[in-house]
Design a protein that fits this description.
It comes from Wuchereria bancrofti. The protein is mainly α. The protein is built from four helices and no strands. 10% of the residues are buried.
Length: 229
Amino acid sequence: MNNSSNNSSSSSSRDNADKTDRSFRRRRTTSFGKLSQFFQTGSILGDSGSVQSALLDLSTTGKLMTKIADSQRRGVESLAIWAHNAGNAAIDDVMQQTRELYEIFTDKELQFARQYMHFVQQLQKIADAERAVKDAKENVIDLEEKEKKLKREIGKGVSFFRQRRGGDIYLLKQKLEEVKASRERSEQILSDLRAEMEVIKMFRFRSGMQGIADAYQDFARSCQAILVV
């Protein structure tokens, strides 16, 4: 009876562990999928992700790095105080040296987090550039709608069943020409802005990604110098 109960408990534990592992893999795959799409294609408005969601994940990583460094510092400080008050000279001596080492290490962690976030903010400018293009496109669409509406109004004004006064028709046509000219200017602005922002987007992407890579390399060298004896 006990063997049956133990087997059942063991099977349940394995099932729970498998479920947890599968859940973790799904979350990890989704997260890496979003970032992979952004890093490989620079896609801003893709079907399965956006630059904003990618940057949110990256920013969260930077904030967590800062919190980790702060937590490490507080933990080591508390441990050093405990060691000092424990009345064991050997433990106290080791812990005081360890605290000095961790002070240097956490300073490098915080420096890395600042550099990392600086270059994430450079990537944020990609979204700003995309937003400028989107606003310009919406302006063109608005002017196209106004142009269509004025054409309908003019068409109604000269219809057999609804005759507008000549002055009204003239004003509508004048307004139509103004809107048409504005629409053409806006289309040219949109075309120029798209070309300009594509160049800027690639520059900022390259600068941001290279900066993040350099920050990781600098931090790795610091870890090597501080922690490897």
